[in-house]
């Protein structure tokens, strides 16, 4: 069991037990083995494969909400890989697997969150694969979520549940949280406009603006819709 040296023994144990229940990544790490062969993106069975992968992660009750590192470990038959055309390039496996772990039935909101991606293969007799996702310890949100439009035109995930050391709790006053977030983003939008007026443009203005942005990240509308999430527009003076 991975432990955090800055936490008490009982806190580490609680974190581990909640991880086993699918309620949190273990100090920011999700790891799962899938005991069936991976297939490449171009395979005609990719839709049923995606369903099978997502059935395996159906008991994961959270999404990562910020940038992550994704490691894909493929266990392939070496002879089949080198001596037949049946085995694809590693990036073709990665493309389909990244599609499988994103969206409403996945564990990432969108694959744009993947900051680092590695794909490795090892020789084996029984083909299977493993996925490891690493984010910051608290950068996750409980399912189910809905997305709310904010004054900057981005959509932010809001859950009706929250993870605590006393277990999963219902969020009280969710509409108030949405309103407070929208007011904060509205102020930041004005700040960004001020930066532009002062001569800062593009990436420089963006990074200055993000210094004051909430930890919760917004997502672009089309990506959210493609991933199957519900969205809400809010009526707020822009």
What's the structural blueprint in terms of helices and strands?
Layout: H1 9-20, E1 29-34, H2 46-56, E2 62-64, E3 68-76, H3 78-83, H4 90-100, E4 114-123, E5 128-134, E6 140-142, E7 145-149, E8 155-159, E9 161-164, E10 167-170, H5 174-197, H6 202-210, H7 221-226, E11 231-232
Parallel strand pairs: 3-4, 7-11
Antiparallel strand pairs: 1-5, 2-6, 3-5, 7-8, 9-10
Helix pairs in contact: 2-4, 5-6
Q: How would you describe the overall organization of this protein?
A:
The chain is α+β, with helices and mostly antiparallel strands and 238 residues long. The protein folds into two domains: 126 residues, Holliday junction resolvase RusA (60s Ribosomal Protein L30, Chain: A), CATH 3.30.1330; 89 residues, no CATH class. The chain contains seven helices and eleven strands. The strands form four sheets. The protein has a four-stranded mixed β-sheet. A three-stranded mixed β-sheet has the order 8-7-11. Helix 2 crosses helix 4 and helix 5 packs antiparallel against helix 6. The mean pLDDT is 90.
CA radius of gyration is 20 Å
Any idea how many domains? 2
Major sheet: 4 strands, mixed
- Please tell me the CATH architecture of the largest domain by its name: 2-Layer Sandwich
What is the distance, rounded to the nearest whole angstrom, between the alpha carbons of the first and last residues?
49 Å
Corresponding CATH superfamily of the largest domain:
Holliday junction resolvase RusA
The name of the CATH topology of the largest domain is: 60s Ribosomal Protein L30, Chain: A
Strand line-up across the major sheet:
1-5-3-4
CATH class of the largest domain: Alpha Beta
- The percent of residues in helical segments reads 25-40%
Q: Helical region count?
A: 7
């Amino acid at each position: 069991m991975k432990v955090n040296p800055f936490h008490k023994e009982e806190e580490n144990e609680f974190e581990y037990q909640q991880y086993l229940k699918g309620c949190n990544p273990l100090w920011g790490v999700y790891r799962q083995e899938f005991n069936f062969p991976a297939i490449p993106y171009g395979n005609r069975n990719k839709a049923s494969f995606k369903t099978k992968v997502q059935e395996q992660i159906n008991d994961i009750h959270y999404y990562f909400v910020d940038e992550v590192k994704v490691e894909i470990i493929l266990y392939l038959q070496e002879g089949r890989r080198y001596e037949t055309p049946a085995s694809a390039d590693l990036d073709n496996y990665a493309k389909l697997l990244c599609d499988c772990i994103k969206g409403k039935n996945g564990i990432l909101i969108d694959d744009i969150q993947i900051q680092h991606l590695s794909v490795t293969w090892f020789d084996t007799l029984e083909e299977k694969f493993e996925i490891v996702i690493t984010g910051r310890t608290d950068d996750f949100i409980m399912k189910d979520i809905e997305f709310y439009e904010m004054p900057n035109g981005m959509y932010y995930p809001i859950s009706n549940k929250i993870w605590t050391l006393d277990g999963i709790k219902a969020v009280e006053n969710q509409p108030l949280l949405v309103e407070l977030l929208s007011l904060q983003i509205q102020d930041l939008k004005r700040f960004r406009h001020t930066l532009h007026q002062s001569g800062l443009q593009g990436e420089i203005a963006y990074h200055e603006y993000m210094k004051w942005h909430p930890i919760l990240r917004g997502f672009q509308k089309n990506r959210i819709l493609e991933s199957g999430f519900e969205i809400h527009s809010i009526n707020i003076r822009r």
